[in-house]
Amino acid sequence: MFLDKFIGLFSNDMAIDLGTANTIVSLRGKGIIINEPSVVAVQHDRHGRDRILAVGSDAKMMIGKTPMNIQAVRPMKDGVIADFEMTERMIRYFIEKAHNRKSFLRPRIIVCIPHGITQVERKAVKESAISAGAREVFLVDEPMAAAIGAGIPVSSPDGYIVVDIGGGTTEIGVTSLGGLVISKSIKVAGDRFDRSIVDYVRQNFNLFIGERTAENIKIEIGTAIKLGKSLTMQVKGRDSSGLLSSIELDSEGVRAALKEPLKEMALAVRQVLEEMPPDLAGDVVDNGIVLTGGGALISGLDTYIAAEVKLPVKVADEPLLAVAHGTSKVLDEEGLLKLISND
Questions:
Q1: Residues 114-155: pLDDT tens digits?
Q2: Better-predicted residue by pLDDT, 114 or 165
Q3: What distance in Å separates the CA atoms of residue 94 and residue 25, rounded to the nearest whole number?
Q4: 314 domain residue, yes or no
Q5: How far apart are CA 288 and CA 269, in angstroms?
Q6: Is residue 53 part of a domain?
Q7: What is the pLDDT of residue 103?
Q8: Are 238 and 124 within one domain?
Q9: Are residues 168 and 294 in the same domain?
Q10: Which of these, 180, 198, 264, 293, is most buried using a 10 Å CB contact count?
């Protein structure tokens, strides 16, 4: 115990928001120092050996453009580890980058996880971090981290709802007295939005586009409500005859593409509201719903959900970084970690 405290004085404890789309790393006392895509580029040689070519931003640039012997892998899928080995290598890369490869002491690490994952998946996250060089690993539920990062007073007896829309999952949590009273995790989030746009463009314009292009469309002209003035964007892809082609896509088309996944998301929020104890329901009527995560940046999403659930909805400041800010705060405040940690 004494040794642990002694080592803790010299080690750079860190928090990792291990997301399907992005991994964000914070260091104690320094805040966010790394924010990169959760992608690993691997080269396979003729002897069956793998070599890591790039991780993060450099690796993401290779998606959909690699030769046969190079593969751009997203080791996280739907908020959980899909490729154990690649996740471990990715975490190791980020630990070394955070410490400039100089630290000889193994850091304590807080890792954010979707609330709905299984015990086996939780164990896999812990083992990946330990194998990658962590001395001790604490797991924190994403809805709690998102709520803390959004400025919600999670330790108060009042009920608050946070909806964190990530890359692989949307996490809906009701917080009160430092815990999650109710939570729900659904696999409808940024990646599902991208796939819906890919399908819409193929079915309506006979044009094949990749998920990176779909993500750009979502960011540029994605909307959940009808806009006063429609936005347009030139989209390039391959048509059914194999020729390269280009179309003009407008925001109304994207709204149509996102209609079904957004409806599923609103339904999940409604289900959480229906399960809520009456006393907390009164708090939520006053406090409303807070949106976090990259998906919260879709134009008009707060207005859309507010109309569906008949409650006030607001987007957090810096929604993309809410979970990372939350884990960073937990890292700096030992009492908060004891209050909300799953260990």
A1: 877 788 888 888 888 888 888 899 999 899 999 999 999 998
A2: 165
A3: 8
A4: yes
A5: 12
A6: no
A7: 56
A8: no
A9: yes
A10: 293
Backbone angles phi, psi at 36, to 5 degrees: -135, 155
Phi, psi angle pair for 207, to nearest 5°: -120, 130
- Report the distance separating Cα 162 and Cα 150, nearest Å: 9
What CA–CA distance (Å, rounded) separates 147 from 199?
Answer: 33
Structural domain boundaries, residue 270: 152-188+258-320
% of residues, the chain, pLDDT over 90: 53
Q: How many residues comprise the chain?
A: 343
Residue 320 to residue 19: CA distance in whole angstroms: 11
- pLDDT at 104 (0 to 100): 54
Per-residue pLDDT of 110-123, as tens digits, reads 998 887 778 888 88
Whether residue 209 is contained in a domain is answered as: yes
The CATH number given to whatever domain includes residue 176 is 3.30.420.40
Same domain, 165 and 295: yes
Q: In this model, does residue 182 exceed pLDDT 80?
A: yes
Q: Per the structure block, which two tokens stand in for 121?
A: 């998946």
Q: Which SS3 state, helix, strand or coil, does residue 188 take?
A: coil
